[in-house]
Amino acid sequence: MVEPAPVLAETLSQIKALAASERPLVICDVDEVVLHFIAHLEEHLEAQGLRFLSHAYKLTGNIAGRDGAPVPANAVKDLLQDFFDTWTHRQQPVDGAAQALETLSRSADIVFLTNLPGAWNREKRVRTLAGHGMRYPVITNTGAKGGAVAALAAGRRGPVAFIDDSPQNIRSVQTALADCVLIHFVADRRFFATSDTIAGVHLKTHDWSAVEAYISTCLSD
Ligand SMILES: [Mg+2]
């Protein structure tokens, strides 16, 4: 992966369709940040006789088949697509996310930036988020998010904050947008406990009230 990752054309066209704004911006991931992902994936895997091998923060090499051996990378990709096709409309919200974003939305624009496999799942995701009180623009992306975040931040005068569970995405944004407020959020406590601590991250948490407090301070500085 070459960093900073360039923004993909499909993502850039969605960003350009947003209303122009100079307000501060909170760019928020969806899976494992505002909607549960790992707990649902675990249930999905178990229904097929599969399981996580550890709480290490990775999927490839960390899912075992019925024989106990790791499922190969291409099969993990298929499993994930199947997961999103069957779960996108019923993923449950992470406690406190909707309320924190509502509070932050009084002083910043909120945008969801999500790597969602299958363009056909986009509307289901938008409806699921809205159904849990999170009605903000949804931008779909593939791969590292640095380029997309830089494009979203262009023209903003106030602070830009980025919230994601993926170390790859956080590092990508760190490279692409030097002054971005970086928040590493992992809802699942078991995976939070084993997740990398990334140098330069401003806040690492599993608690939305901590996110709200931290970003509110940045916005009022
Ligand atoms: Mg995520």
Fraction of helical residues? 25-40%
What order do the helices and strands follow? HEHEEHHEHEHEHEHEH
Shape summary: globular
The N- to C-terminal Cα distance equals 35 Å
CATH superfamily of the largest domain: HAD superfamily/HAD-like
* Biggest pleated sheet: 6 strands, parallel
The low-confidence parts are: none
Name a few traits of the molecule.
8 strands, 221 residues, binds magnesium ion, alpha/beta, two-stranded antiparallel ribbon, 2 domains, globular, six-stranded parallel beta sheet, Rossmann fold
List the helices and strands and how they pair.
Elements: H1 9-16, E1 25-28, H2 38-46, E2 51-52, E3 63-64, H3 73-87, H4 97-104, E4 109-114, H5 122-131, E5 138-140, H6 146-153, E6 160-164, H7 167-176, E7 181-185, H8 189-194, E8 203-205, H9 208-220
Parallel strand pairs: 1-4, 1-6, 4-5, 6-7, 7-8
Antiparallel strand pairs: 2-3
Helix pairs in contact: 2-3, 4-9, 6-7
